[in-house]
Design a protein that fits this description.
Layout (H helix, E strand, L loop, with lengths): L1 E12 L2 E12 L3 E5 L6 H8 L7 E6 L2 E2 L8 E4 L11 H11 L4 H14 L15 H13 L5 E5 L7 H16 L3 E5 L3 H7 L2 E6 L2 E7 H7 L4 E6 L8 H4 L4 E7 L2 E6 L5 H11 L2 E7 L3 H9 L7
Parallel strand pairs: 3-8, 3-9, 6-7, 7-8
Antiparallel strand pairs: 1-2, 1-4, 4-5, 9-10, 11-13, 11-14, 12-13
Helix pairs in contact: 2-3
Length: 306
Amino acid sequence: MFTVELNKVRKTFDKYVAVDDLSFSIARGRMFGLLGKNGAGKTSTIRMMIGITIPDSGDVRMFGQPFDRDMLKRVGYLPEEKGLYPKMNVLDQLIFIGEIHDLSKNDARDRAVKWGKRLEIDQAYTKKTQELSKGMQQKVQFIATLLHEPEFIIMDEPASGLDPANARVLEEVLIELRKEGRTILFSSHRMDQVEKLCDEICLIDQAKSILQGNLKEIKAGYGKNTVEVQLASGDSGNVEYLRNMPGVNSFEESAGVVRMKLDKGTDTQQIMREASQRSMVTRFEVMEPSLEDIFLERVGGDNAQN
């Protein structure tokens, strides 16, 4: 069964087309990445999905039925723009949010305390939200999203403000939730996170879907056209000959690791032989392109910003 289905949804604001006949579906228990540059239409899509705005045309189905606002009791939404009360005690705030989702005060408190310990933030529960760092506030918002144990979880930039260690904890929690059968929509500019976590993706550009499907199949379809060569420390400065080899489309070098994107049909064995003859090679690897490589190839731009 699909948790959510969008069928040719379209949204305009005056003459601006925010979402243009977008269709995709997310199966139960899957983690789905919604990607695109700023202004591509991701947030507008999410808002239509949960009834904040109404599509001009097309339809949204959730849990196998036409969308109804009562379904939001089964949905958890972490927006990019946070909605916490800055002067309210953190624990009291989480209890209040739990009660909004029809939890008893005691249940809300118990769940908040459990999540606080899991995310190592319970020591901050007596403070006001405005006294917390951005990362700590993000953890509070994350807990607020999960208190009522939603079946469908929508995460818009969930790692915002988190250091790498705390971002990893969040990733572990999301993986656990997926294993429990929860469906997760993950919108992020962190291509490494999306690549690590998501089963399927939809890439939006200029309000339209330009690439979607199973992430492993998408990557396999691009072929293994990326080569990484790691050189011994004494040879790390002697890399220009690799840049100039036939078939090298793009070239990056950092800390003794050379990363090259190759034209289709380039002989990787010839590159390996040349590198081995002229340098001390400690690693030579032919890889599929990263999700960021695919993103940049399809939408262009200087980076993969959300």
